Amino acid sequence: MSRLILFNKPFGVLSQFTGVDGQATLASYINHKTVYAAGRLDKDSEGLLLLTNDGKLQQKIADPKFKMEKTYHAQVDGMISDEAIESLVQGVALNDGLTRPAKVTRIEEPAYLWQREPPVRFRQNIPTSWIELKIMEGRNRQVRRMTAATGFPTLRLIRVAIGTWKLDGLPPGCFTELEV
């Protein structure tokens, strides 16, 4: 049987087991030597990261050709416009090409939110808004670059699902293990 670990990666943690002195890595939270991350979350992003000991499963999760849907909740700077949402839905031109169309909806601030250290910057006179964004590719910092390209930079990014696997209340820094 293959092992699959669902990990809620905290802000500031690298999506790898090794790093430079003082950097938080997966090794700070997971003591399994036989699993590897299936995809990545950048250091500034939070949420679901899958790790497995099965190379074929890892490829199925991480390789864009398998079109595994990834769901994110993003807090953006400003009140996101209908035009920006439509741009995200159609696909956004980035320096490495046009993104595939995304599924995007405006959402309320998620009820599950945990405190982040350090907190997201707060400016009383500049509102923020939240979107749920679903993509089937995984370019470097893609969601952040997409929202910035529409004029609404991402302030906080949380991956809540990959395919059918979900965070489902898993606290930051914690993991659960499945046999698949």
What order do the helices and strands follow?
Answer: EEEHEHEEEEHEEE
Largest sheet: 9 strands, mixed
The name of the CATH topology of the largest domain is Alpha-Beta Plaits
In the CATH classification, which architecture of the largest domain applies?
Answer: 2-Layer Sandwich
The number of helical runs is 3
Characterise the protein shown here.
The protein is an alpha+beta fold and 180 residues long. It has 2 domains: 3-64 and 165-179, Alpha-Beta Plaits, CATH 3.30.70; 69-162, Alpha-Beta Plaits, CATH 3.30.70.1560. Helices cover 14% and strands 32% of the residues. The strands form 2 sheets. Strands 1, 2, 3, 4, 7, 8, 9, 10 and 11 form a 9-stranded mixed β-sheet that branches. The chain has a two-stranded antiparallel ribbon with strand order 5-6. The chain is globular and about 45 Å long. The protein starts with a strand and ends with a strand. The model has no long low-confidence stretch (mean pLDDT 93).
